């Protein structure tokens, strides 16, 4: 009881807006600055859970549940991370939670999941994030078995960009893995889970004071992605993130992590001896990049200039071109259609190339539809209630019979000899639709 009250006070202080950072708020001048007093960018609101409509569970962490919610008054959608105060205290995770809250508040990069606001009640803490509708990269790998090199290259280039930013401001993530890499509705990667970060010397990032019970003992991170020197000495450098990224890339391309074994002991043995076998279908460029990323930790000396090298090799492996619009379309389709919601509208052997919820515009009115492009090729729309009677085919199989006119990134018109259909795409993917439709028509 006492413990929970103590935690409430402590967390109330941490989650509350107090005042801007001052020199007095900096507890230690050597090494990381640790503070409990500053103004949060993502505010602490006075909301209650009843202000939200609860949707499906998006994911479950070791001490949290993340639920898709809609704010009743605004209709805005969030991924709400819900943490039980009692459980956090018993698991000695108070600092972990505070750290994530305070660190995320100071980060600003499109590849990092954005914390929007927090609130609390007597039992729980709530953190509202932008919702990453594409789910975890981990699920994407599981669903597909493995990911093609072109697609993996795109993800890796985006993650390297985030790591470069983090390392540049003096932060080591320490838990890069496919479960912590989330995908947006239009297929971009967002790095999540900042509860295990560590700061490097000279950082400007402010951290909360660490509780003694939470600072000592075991390594941070996830065993399968932890480099040998962390297992040996628990040292942490930015090279840990490179190692973890190398393991993640291996997992994207093969479906399993590189040191997977039947027991943790065998896995650690493999990690320590860097015992890695590459499947025959890995390209030389992919092997080189993984080798580079995994090599980097040996002496724990990787610098930011090495990241530039990785970026170059990431953009070089798989193919020599930058990600194309066709490639984005495939990516989008794989994100939008993965739950087979629209399977019932497909013919045997037909698969979805691109699918998205759009507005179909008429002269004075508009209606929401699901527009679907398939490999047959066919372009049709259905209403979101999925009733078969409302399925309308716009175009089927006639190569000369279709063109797409893009008015701006969110508006486009599909022209066939029979009709002209206008759409508004809030995700601003009008050019993707044009490339995907006309690409199929001209095949
Ligand atoms: N913004 C988001 N959008 C969609 N899903 C999310 C979001 N944030 C988290 N999730 C889902 O919830 C899961 C748990 O979230 P998170 O990793 O932040 O929790 P945790 O308790 O810190 O987990 P861990 O056990 O990794 O420490 C994620 O793996 C992901 O599946």
The number of helical runs is 12
Q: Helicity level, as a percent range?
A: 25-40%
**Going across the major beta sheet, what is the strand order?**
16-15-14-13-19-18-17
Mean pLDDT, to the nearest integer, reads 78
CATH top-level class of the largest domain:
Mainly Alpha
Task: Pick out the low-confidence regions.
Answer: 1-8, 16-37, 297-302, 318-339
Number of strands: 19
Known CATH architecture of the largest domain: Orthogonal Bundle
Report the radius of gyration as a whole number of Å: 24 Å
Query: How is the biggest beta sheet arranged?
Result: 7 strands, antiparallel
Number of domains: 3
The percentage of residues in β strands lies in 15-25%
Q: Any ligands, ions or cofactors bound here, and which? A: adenosine-5'-triphosphate
CATH superfamily of the largest domain: Transferase(Phosphotransferase) domain 1
Distance between the termini: 69 Å
How does the overall form come out from the CA principal axes? globular
Protein name: non-specific serine/threonine protein kinase
Family: Belongs to the protein kinase superfamily. AGC Ser/Thr protein kinase family. PDPK1 subfamily. Belongs to the protein kinase superfamily. CAMK Ser/Thr protein kinase family. SNF1 subfamily.
GO cellular component, one term: cAMP-dependent protein kinase complex
Pfam families: PH_3, Pkinase
Task: Describe what you observe in this structure.
- This protein is α+β, with helices and mostly antiparallel strands and 443 residues long.
- The chain is built from twelve helices and 19 strands.
- The chain folds into three domains: 2-130, Phosphorylase Kinase, domain 1; 135-314, Transferase(Phosphotransferase) domain 1 (Transferase(Phosphotransferase), domain 1); 335-441, Pleckstrin-homology domain (PH domain)/Phosphotyrosine-binding domain (PTB) (PH-domain like, Roll).
- Helix 1 runs parallel beside helix 3, helix 5 runs antiparallel to helix 7 (239-254) and helix 11 (325-336) crosses helix 12 (430-441).
- The N and C termini lie far apart (69 Å).
- Helices cover 32% and strands 22% of the residues.
- The strands form five sheets. Strands 16-15-14-13-19-18-17 form a seven-stranded antiparallel sheet.
- It has helices at residues 2-15, 85-90, 94-106, 137-144, 149-168, 228-233, 239-254, 264-272, 284-295, 304-316, 325-336, 430-441, and strands spanning 33-34, 52-60, 65-71, 77-84, 115-120, 124-129, 135-136, 171-172, 181-183, 189-191, 198-199, 206-207, 352-361, 366-374, 378-382, 392-396, 403-408, 411-415, 420-424.
- Residues 1-8, 16-37, 297-302 and 318-339 have low confidence and may be disordered.
- Residues 58-59, 61-64, 66, 79, 81, 113, 129-132, 136, 179-180, 182, 192-193, 195 line the site of adenosine-5'-triphosphate (ATP).
- It comes from Dendrobium nobile (Orchid).
